Amino acid sequence: MYYFDPMYLVFMLPALLLSVWAQFKVKGAYAKYTRVPNQRGLTGLDAAKIILPQEGLMGVSIEGIPGELTDHYDPRSKKLRLSAGVAQQPSLASLAVTVHEIGHALQDQQNYGPLKLRGAIVPAVQVSSWVAPIMFFIGLFLGMTQLAWVGIILFGLGALFALITLPVEFNASKRGLQLLQTYQLADGREIQGAKAVLDAAALTYVAALVQALVTILYYVSIMNRRRN
User: Fold this and answer.
1) What is this structure's pTM?
2) What distance in Å separates the CA atoms of residue 166 and residue 114, rounded to the nearest whole number?
3) Which residues are catalytic?
4) Do 65 and 86 touch, CB atoms closer than 8 A?
5) What are phi and psi of 81, to 5 degrees?
6) pLDDT tens figures, 10-64
7) What is the 3-state secondary structure (H, E, C) of the chain?
8) Which of 122, 116, 104 minimizes the C-alpha distance to 60?
9) Are strands 72-74 and 61-65 parallel, antiparallel or unpaired?
10) Which of 79, 86, 87, 83 has the alpha carbon at shortest distance from 66?
11) Among 3, 10, 99, 156, fewest CB within 10 Å belongs to which?
């Protein structure tokens, strides 16, 4: 018989609601500003072709990627991957997403510390994401308290990753908005629109951190209840 812990909802429901709200905000902002053309009629691909050589990023290649809001910069292959909507549409959203990802390329070029640290812990985070719950519940059910606490510590790697992600993403957005201004790709009003898109996206990373921290607190609460 399965046992449902009501405390799970107490801990996780607020974080889940924040995550859903953040996704709603980012999709809403992206949809809104996808319908707003930029005055220069530049697609994301156009903007990338203007900025990359000017910033000394000739080694960064551009390629397409399926889906929506799947755009990213891959520091391993030095590729800027743009979705069709971003690469082909002359919208404010396209400019915002493109310059944000170029911001990551600049971080990589300049050996930005948080980006390097985040990349370094990715393998450990990937392993811990499935090892941590196994160790926790084996330790819990077999009464091996130390093993359960090791599982909780491994959950902490996910929270650390989410924490490091915040300065990486905020800094990329800041760099991106500066690029729009430096190369006069958008006027003041348009930059505010681009900022609205990037601010909404940033909220998803905040929600991810909150969810990671709350997960740790929930498992700690289980250990405290078991001890009492």
Assistant:
1) 0.91
2) 9
3) 101
4) no
5) -105, 120
6) 888 999 999 999 999 999 999 999 999 999 999 999 999 999 999 999 999 999 9
7) CCCCCHHHHHHHHHHHHHHHHHHHHHHHHHHHHHCCECCCCCCHHHHHHHHHHHCCCCCCEEEEECCCCCCEEECCCCEEEEEHHHHHCCEHHHHHHHHHHHHHHHHHHCCCHHHHHHHHHHHHHHHHHHHHHHHHHHHHHCCCHHHHHHHHHHHHHHHHHHHHHHHHHHHHHHHHHHHHHHCCCCCHHHHHHHHHHHHHHHHHHHHHHHHHHHHHHHHHHHHHHHHC
8) 104
9) unpaired
10) 83
11) 3
At residue 32, φ and ψ (nearest 5 deg) are -65, -50
Neighbours of 86 (CB within 10 A): 29
Rg of the chain, C-alpha, whole Å: 21
